[in-house]
Design a protein that fits this description.
The structure holds two protein chains of two kinds. Chain A is mainly β. Chain A has no helices and nine strands. In chain A, the strands form two sheets. In chain A, strands 1, 3, 4, 7, 8 and 9 form a six-stranded mixed β-sheet that branches. Chain A has a three-stranded antiparallel β-sheet with strand order 2-6-5, with no helix packed on it. By secondary structure, chain B is mostly beta strands. Chain B is built from no helices and eleven strands. In chain B, strands 2, 4, 5, 6, 9, 10 and 11 form a seven-stranded mixed β-sheet that branches. Chain B has a four-stranded antiparallel β-sheet with strand order 1-3-8-7, with no helix packed on it. In chain B, strand 9 and strand 10 form a beta hairpin. Chain B starts with a strand and ends with a strand. The chains are: A mainly beta, B mainly beta. At the A-B interface, strand 3, strand 7 and strand 8 of A face strand 5 and strand 10 of B.
Chain lengths: 109, 120
Amino acid sequence: QSVLTQPPSVSAAPGQKVTISCSGSNSNIGNNYVSWYQQLPGTAPKLLIYDNNKRPSGIPDRFSGSKSGTSATLAITGLQTGDEADYYCGTWDSSLSVVFGGGTKLTVL
Amino acid sequence: QVHLVQSGNEVKKPGASVKVSCKTSGYTFTSFAITWVRQAPGQGLEWMGWINNYNGYTNYAQKVQDRVTMTADTSTSTAYLELRSLRSDDTAVYYCARPSAAGTVDFDYWGQGTLVTVSS
């Protein structure tokens, strides 16, 4: 059971928009920045979003993040088949540990 | 460029220990912590702990704190993860990761992963 709650799966058609939620508490998301990671099969996770809504260099602006209270959301617009992957949210917890969501599998129909 | 290169896959018997290395390059090793994350087959990411490579301070996940030791060799810019008393549910890919800035959880550099298989 992960500390952060994500939907197990989401799906949408190519070109559409999808959102992935990440729910936590005041001991983690509520008082810390949230990061999002994309993991393609057989590869290490890749940082997509940091500090709730910032993109590292090279990440297209189709990916965006937001946070409100104890929840965060990753949005992906203009879906492409190459976006099919697992997505994870992560943040600090009050115990100085890192917590991740259980992951969301994105299927592009 | 920043690189994190991990040691090769391991097969261990229950009760044994494993030590995974993460050799870094392209940055000042002591300026950033290294975090270890594992992923069991078909499962999500599980944080195991981190080590401050400047002073050796560690913080371990409660689930493994009695069996894990993270160390750093500043002379070779290499971080190590040792896990003892291995069980079948320790079978996972183990990743080392470095944050984009000190004190953050934005891990923008990752090792390639080391598969540890625990089987009798």
